[in-house]
Structure formats: structure tokens, C-alpha cells
Specification:
Elements: H1 2-23, H2 43-50, E1 58-60, E2 77-82, E3 103-108, E4 115-117, H3 134-137, E5 154-162, H4 163-166, E6 177-178, H5 180-189, E7 199-203, H6 206-210, H7 215-220, E8 224-225, H8 227-235, E9 240-243, H9 261-270, E10 273-276, H10 281-285, E11 290-295, E12 305-307, E13 311-313
Parallel strand pairs: 5-7, 6-8, 7-9, 9-10
Antiparallel strand pairs: 1-13, 2-3, 4-10, 4-12, 5-11, 11-13
Helix pairs in contact: 8-9
């Protein structure tokens, strides 16, 4: 009787595993792929993007961060500057001169300020991009797969959709959201095209309007891309999607939406990278909404996210 019970249990577990596998769709880049939309970086797209450099200007898309930068709880940052072996005014005579130097020690969560969300950041049901199981990749010493150190330089054509302008405001309100209809209308009105391999950024005015004047509000709520809008954007096959907000999606979430489910749609389901807190305002104020985007993140093995400062070249 016991043997029959175990045999039946084994069948049930096997069936459950088969169902779980069936529900998981492998990437269009193959079952072994771990870089997702970074496969869209090609010499041809890089050369095309370089033709967007007409003024010879560059603009940082990252913001300056510090210990007082609001961040998703419980994230924090602490920086210490030290002068090793120089206590009491000692100098480093071993250099052949009386040398002195500063070093820095950074104790921080990585997901603060301008950041790249890697494909191992948010999943569902214990699964991440390309059906990778949390038990397989989530190790306390670093992701065994999907780490941001494996992401090649993200280089390509980038566009900014000014959603604040679309709604006739300087700063969208917390919880305000947009989907496919608003995105299409804004793109048409602003003469912006979006295609495969592009980096698509949304400007809501949130960082311009709130980061310095009301940091508590900036870090606790935001406007953004709703669940339906994320599905639409993913259908365009971009390389990355980002915004001038800390989480890209609206907080509080619209009624009926799942919180941060756009992350699941983009990262897990489609292998599309997310760019958070992109400082889009200065680029738009320079009269530019299309440019060459260049990102080479720090390659710390196994990281889920990366602190970044992409450059807009135009």
C-alpha cells in the first residue's frame, strides 16, 4: 500500500513538473541564452546609431547619488573615505617621496539611483528569464546565471517619449499611468519611431520635479508604465526600456494592475532590460529626443543590478 502511495505521489509530482515546464516558454534566442535583448547589439545597429551624433555633444543620463538618496526599502548607501596607514600625519615614505592618498569604502545596496535591472532581478513562481529556476541561480554570493557582469555594452539608438508633454503637464502625478494608446499618440505627435533593438525611455518629469524639492515623495511613489503598456512595449522588441523614475511603473498601481508586473513582462517573459532613474530632462531641454546610447556597466560578478551612468551622444 505504501509503495503504491509513493508511486502515485511520484506521478503527481512528475505531472506537476511537466505542467510547470509547459507553462514556461524558452527565449527566442534559445534555451541556453542568458543575455536576452543584449543579443540585439550588432555592428550594424551601432553604426546606424552613430549617425545620430550630429552636434558632438554628450549628456549623462545617470543622477548623482549619496547616503541621502531615497531608495526602495530597505536599500541604503554608506560611503567612507579613509587614509590607510597615515594616522597621526604619517607619510608613505616607501614611495620615494612623502606621499599621501585617500581611498574609499562603499557599503551599499546596488539598486540605488540610476540602475540597470538585470534579467535575474524579478521573476514569478520561482522562475526567471528563460525558465531559470531560483534554486539554480539565486546564491547568496552572487547569481550563478543572469549576472549583470555578463551583459555586453549596451549600444544603440535611443528615443525619449515625453509623456509629461503628452498629458500637458510638467510633472505627472504619482500613480498617473500610460499604456499603448497614450504611447502611440505621444510617439505620433512627437515624431518618434520605435523599433527593434532601440532603447525606449519615458519622460514623466518626476525626477526633474521631485528629486530635489521633495525627495520623500520622489522615492515613495511615481507615475509610469502600466501593465498593458509593458506588454505593448515588449512587442516592439526593444533592447531596454526605462524612465526618469526609480521604478518605471506607477506607484500606487492602477486598479486591476499587479504591482511592478511590467518588470516580469519585460525581464522574465521577454529578456528586455530595465533602466531606472534616467535623467531625461536635460536631453529634452537640449531639443533632442533621439540619440546614440552607450552603457558599459561595472562588471561585478553575479550582480542582480548595476549602478550606471549611460551616456547620450547627439
Amino acid at each position: 500500500m505504501k509503495i503504491k502511495h509513493l508511486t502515485g505521489l511520484t506521478c503527481v509530482l512528475t505531472l506537476a513538473a511537466s505542467i510547470a515546464t509547459a507553462e514556461c516558454a524558452y527565449s527566442k534566442w534559445g534555451a541556453e541564452d542568458t543575455i536576452g535583448s543584449a543579443n540585439l547589439v550588432t555592428p550594424e545597429r551601432t553604426l546606424m546609431a552613430s549617425k545620430l551624433i550630429k552636434q558632438g555633444k554628450s549628456m549623462p543620463l545617470g543622477i548623482t547619488i549619496g547616503s541621502d538618496t531615497p531608495a526602495f526599502p530597505p536599500r541604503s548607501l554608506n560611503l567612507q573615505v579613509v587614509q590607510p596607514n597615515q594616522q597621526g600625519g604619517q607619510k608613505l615614505s616607501g614611495f620615494g617621496y612623502e606621499g599621501n592618498y585617500n581611498d574609499d569604502i562603499l557599503q551599499t545596496w546596488v539598486g540605488i539611483g540610476s540602475q540597470l535591472d538585470g534579467l535575474g532581478h524579478l521573476g514569478e513562481g520561482g522562475k526567471y528569464y528563460n525558465c531559470l529556476d531560483e534554486k539554480e541561480i539565486s546564491v547568496i554570493t552572487g547569481l550563478t546565471k543572469l549576472g549583470t557582469h555578463d551583459v555586453p555594452p549596451l549600444v544603440g539608438r535611443a528615443v525619449i517619449l515625453d509623456m509629461a508633454k503628452h498629458f500637458g503637464v510638467d510633472v505627472m502625478e504619482a500613480g498617473a499611468h500610460f499604456g499603448s494608446d497614450d504611447i502611440k499618440a505621444a510617439a505620433e505627435a512627437q515624431n518618434v519611431t520605435m523599433g527593434e533593438g532601440d532603447i525606449i525611455l519615458f519622460h514623466t518629469g518626476w525626477t526633474d520635479g521631485k528629486f530635489e524639492s521633495d525627495p520623500t515623495a520622489w522615492g515613495s511613489s511615481e507615475p509610469g508604465l502600466n501593465n498593458e503598456g509593458a506588454v505593448y512595449i515588449a512587442s516592439l522588441n526593444p533592447m531596454a526600456v526605462g524612465a526618469d523614475t526609480w521604478g518605471v511603473e506607477p506607484i500606487p498601481a492602477p486598479e486591476g494592475d499587479k504591482i511592478f508586473y511590467g518588470h516580469v513582462t519585460l525581464l522574465k517573459e521577454n529578456g528586455i532590460y530595465i533602466l531606472e532613474t534616467m535623467n531625461t530632462g536635460p536631453v529634452l531641454r537640449d531639443g533632442v529626443n533621439e540619440f546614440m546610447f552607450v552603457l558599459g556597466q561595472a562588471r561585478i560578478k553575479g550582480t542582480v543590478q548595476a549602478m550606471i551612468n549611460p551616456v547620450a551622444l547627439y
